[in-house]
Inverse folding.
């Protein structure tokens, strides 16, 4: 009985370590340093926008770049809505760039890299939801490496998602599980794509 209890407790501790690890693996954060631009991917929370504006106000880059189309073709692109809000919050319009065509994270990465090269910008701080940061970083790193751009990660300060407690409530749990699946597919897809080249 004692062995069973010890095994059960060890299993609980191991499960907690895995759950905690998942939250931290998904949300990598690099030390902050000045960059040419702060990139925020459009999404479902205002935390991405607010975090990007905060970094801009703190002087980490002279420009903000918002990336993303609209899910509704009749609406303005999400990146333009973010731009309007940034200007409303006091960011000068000439300090905000937008990439309006992307509908996926991979398209965000390609579109942002192209726009940065066009504008002679070489380094970026990437802001997205914490649970999305790892996959976004993977995709952006690929696009940036091809164009000799550098990237730092800084997950949005999103009070609705906690890396230590994400599994305790919805929608954090579902968002995280879906993102893990997408990351897995993206990670195993890379060697498959290379093998097919």
């Amino acid at each position: 009985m004692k062995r069973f209890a010890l095994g059960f407790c060890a299993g609980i501790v191991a499960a907690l370590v895995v759950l905690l690890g998942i939250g931290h693996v998904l949300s990598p954060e690099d030390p902050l340093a000045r960059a040419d631009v702060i990139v925020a991917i459009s999404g479902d929370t205002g935390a991405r926008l607010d975090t990007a504006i905060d970094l801009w106000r703190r002087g980490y880059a002279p420009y903000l770049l918002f990336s993303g189309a609209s899910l509704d073709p009749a609406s303005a692109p999400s990146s333009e809505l973010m731009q309007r809000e940034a200007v409303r919050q006091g960011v000068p319009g000439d300090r905000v760039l937008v990439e309006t065509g992307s509908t996926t994270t991979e398209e965000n990465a390609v579109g942002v890299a192209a726009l940065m090269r066009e504008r002679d910008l070489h380094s970026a701080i990437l802001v997205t939801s914490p649970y999305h940061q790892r996959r976004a970083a993977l995709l952006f790193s690929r696009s940036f490496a091809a164009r000799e751009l550098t990237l730092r990660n800084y997950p949005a300060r999103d009070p609705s998602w906690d890396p230590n407690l994400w599994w305790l409530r919805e929608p954090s749990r579902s968002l995280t599980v879906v993102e893990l699946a997408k990351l897995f597919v993206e990670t195993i897809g890379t060697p498959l794509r290379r093998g097919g080249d």
In short: Residues 2-26 form the longest helix (25 residues). The radius of gyration is 19 Å. Residues 33-160 form a domain with the Rossmann fold fold (CATH 3.40.50.620). The chain has six helices and five strands.
